Amino acid sequence: MSTAPLALALLYPIMMDPWHHVSEWFQNESPSPFDTKHGMSFWEYASTEQMLNQLFNDAMARDAWFYSSLAIKECKHVFEWIPHDWSDEECVKLLEKCKESIIPSKGKGGKVIIAEMVVADNKEDHKATKTQLFFDMLMMVDHNGKERTEKEWAKLFSTTGFTNYKITTSLGLRYVTTRI
């Protein structure tokens, strides 16, 4: 399993440039350094730049295939992907849509399973902490998103009316957060 598509997408100059504009972004009202540099969101830019769109889609397809195959193998549940590249407000909208889609099957045990990193204080594993912080920075710079702590996930779940959740640490740095 190659991580080349992810590396190519992350190192593509259009994705690297926003890192040089973080200090400028702190001083303006743009939603992200990507927006500061390019004058539009990542999603808008990707819709006009064919190479970026292809690199990103290849990277996300490989990433989704890898983690969904692990999650399905280990969890044996219905699998639903909620990306970390969204703001809290956008995540609330996505979770509300997920909840709407499982309400009719409530008696059948409908679930939403989210494969995401849960930021934790890994005092004994400094590499894991550094990786989590890197991905949090990546989401901040290139998207208007972030990696979330368990407390932040709990707030999103509560806001959208979910009453139970379970965090399972079966996928390394990726966790499976189950909402019932």
List keywords for this structure.
alpha+beta; methyltransferase; O-methyltransferase activity; 180 residues; two-stranded parallel ribbon; 12% strand; 54% helix; 9 helices; COMT-like; 3-stranded antiparallel β-sheet; SAM-dependent_MTases_sf
CATH fold title: Rossmann fold
Beta-strand share of residues: 5-15%
Task: Choose one word for the global shape.
Answer: globular
Number of strands: 5
Low-pLDDT regions: 76-81
Spatially, the strands of the biggest sheet line up as: 1-5-4
Class computed from helices, strands and strand pairing = alpha+beta
Query: How many domains would you count in the coordinates?
Result: 1
Helix content range of the residues, please?
40-55%
User: Could you tell me the radius of gyration in angstroms?
Assistant: 17 Å
- Distance between the terminal alpha carbons, to the nearest Å? 32 Å
Q: What is the CATH class designation? A: Alpha Beta
Please name the fourth-level CATH homologous superfamily.
Answer: Vaccinia Virus protein VP39
Description:
This is O-methyltransferase C-terminal domain-containing protein. One of its GO terms (molecular function) is O-methyltransferase activity. One of its GO terms (biological process) is methylation. Pfam families: Methyltransf_2. By secondary structure, the protein is an alpha+beta fold. It contains nine helices and five strands; from the N terminus they run αααααααββαβαββ. The strands form two sheets. It has a three-stranded antiparallel sheet, with helices on both faces. It has a two-stranded parallel ribbon with strand order 2-3. α1 packs across α6. The longest helix is centred in the middle third of the chain and has 26 residues. It is globular, with a radius of gyration of 17 Å.
